[in-house]
Inverse folding.
């Protein structure tokens, strides 16, 4: 009996560190159609996929300064699918010339009881929003065009209000740590979307206040 | 020397074949789209297809103009064997377009002169050119040149005027950088999204969970310092965002984990 392929074997003795490479931009409503059209041409040929997701961000405050943040996401268009729990680390401050934002990323699937579980563990929900839009793929790259809406009544995802008149565009790749060629591919793809949108690496800590 | 030329020829022919295959695929998908998705087709998508074809033709031109490409004109193709039998290998190579290498297909596929109709037209045109005489021909040429330069001028000048007009470009802007930062801030740490409150009506035995205090400090309050949570809750910059609405989240039972960080509660256990 031959050994199963490496990708299927359980990872023991430490996990593979997956990093998320991210570039973000936005597009106004009136230019959305042309952007979708261009993405349909540039990305892999597949049926355009739309999604509606509800994301809740949980915080666990420890004794020290920074709280621990977990993001729980569920699909509103597929209510029976599992929840998706994600941890995103601090952006890696490395090379200034690296073209994309790089941060550690851990993803797990969870059952429907995730919010109660997190509450029991001591997490508190900090904020939530609904994101709905389109998703495209090109090889390992994922492009998500979504409109972000705030939830007016906590827990009620029907009653939402758009945050702005633009759609958020995110280009991301999940790759094991150390593969820096990935950001080159992202940059050349981002070039192809100019001047319609400018995808750039936006450091979230610089956005505060 | 001979081998180098042969190698160059081979590589050039191979790349030419692949480029032509790309053009063929682009053309066939375009034709399919035009024939079948006629109602849903929009002008930008047609333009995209044309742009794609023009790009591919450009690459072919560049390839042919490349100095490493030997002159194909100097190569001669001679059929060595013609047979009326079906040749499977040939059929596979040409995707079933040329199943038989016989005397019917040779005049079409190995033609080096233009088609007979085209030859006729060319003969007529050259006869016409000889007939009108050199002075009249020169006048024609000058008139054509003048028309072309006028047209080019008209096309170039308004574009120069337009490029200086920033307001026109504003209208055509397809993204707004402030929106970008607002959206990124919202998704990254909830700026602009109302902070969630724990449920108001909790048992009176639960200390410190009134509507004005969050169960855990919000992200914005973290920067002020974990110890002074109570003041932060009252006067923090997040205050305007805290709507005093009873949250719909289930009230948390005091777990051991929470009480371990008891410094954030006003009542000591």
């Amino acid at each position: 009996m031959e050994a199963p392929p490496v990708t299927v074997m359980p990872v023991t003795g430490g996990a593979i560190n997956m990093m998320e490479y991210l570039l973000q931009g936005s597009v106004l409503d009136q230019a959305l159609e042309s952007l979708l059209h261009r993405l349909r041409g540039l990305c892999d040929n597949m049926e355009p996929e739309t999604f509606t997701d509800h994301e809740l961000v949980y915080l666990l405050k420890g004794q020290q300064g920074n709280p621990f943040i977990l993001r729980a996401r569920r699909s509103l268009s597929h209510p029976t699918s599992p929840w998706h729990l994600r941890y995103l680390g601090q952006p890696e401050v490395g090379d200034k010339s690296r073209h994309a934002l790089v941060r550690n990323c851990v993803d797990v699937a969870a059952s429907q009881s995730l919010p109660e579980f997190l509450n029991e563990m001591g997490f508190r929900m900090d904020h939530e929003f609904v994101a709905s839009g389109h998703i495209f793929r090109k090889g390992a790259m994922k492009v998500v065009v979504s409109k972000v809406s705030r939830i007016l009544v906590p827990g009620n995802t029907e009653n939402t209000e758009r945050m702005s008149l633009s759609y958020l565009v995110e280009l991301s790749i999940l790759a094991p740590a150390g593969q820096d060629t990935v950001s080159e591919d992202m940059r050349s793809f981002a070039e192809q979307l100019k001047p319609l949108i400018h995808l750039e690496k936006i450091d979230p800590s610089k956005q505060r206040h | 020397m001979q081998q180098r030329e042969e190698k160059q020829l081979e590589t050039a022919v191979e790349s030419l074949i692949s480029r032509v295959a790309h053009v063929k695929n682009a053309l066939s998908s375009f034709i399919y789209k035009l024939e079948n998705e006629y109602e849903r087709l929009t002008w930008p998508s047609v333009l995209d297809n044309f742009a794609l074809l023009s790009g591919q033709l450009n690459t072919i031109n560049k390839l042919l103009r490349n100095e490493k490409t030997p002159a194909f004109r100097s190569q001669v193709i001679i059929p060595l064997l013609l047979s009326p039998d079906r040749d499977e290998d040939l059929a596979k190579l040409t995707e079933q377009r040329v199943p038989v290498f016989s005397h019917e297909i040779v005049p079409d596929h190995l033609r080096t002169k233009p088609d007979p109709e085209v030859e006729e037209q060319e003969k007529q045109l050259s006869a016409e050119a000889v007939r009108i005489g050199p002075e009249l021909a020169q006048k024609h040429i000058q008139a054509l040149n003048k028309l072309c330069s006028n047209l080019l001028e008209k096309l170039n000048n308004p574009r120069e005027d337009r490029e200086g007009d920033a307001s026109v470009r504003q209208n055509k802007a397809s993204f707004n950088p402030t929106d970008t930062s607002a959206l990124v801030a919202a998704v990254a740490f909830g700026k602009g999204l109302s902070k969630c409150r724990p449920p108001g009506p909790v048992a009176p035995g639960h200390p410190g969970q009134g509507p004005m205090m969050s169960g855990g400090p919000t992200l914005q309050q973290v920067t002020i310092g974990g110890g002074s949570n109570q003041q932060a809750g009252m006067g923090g910059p997040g205050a305007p965002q805290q709507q005093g609405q009873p949250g719909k989240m289930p009230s948390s039972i005091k777990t051991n984990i929470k009480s371990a960080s008891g410094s954030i509660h006003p009542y000591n256990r």
Observations:
- Chain B has a mean pLDDT of 72.
- Residues 115-161 of chain B form one domain.
- The radius of gyration of chain B is 38 Å.
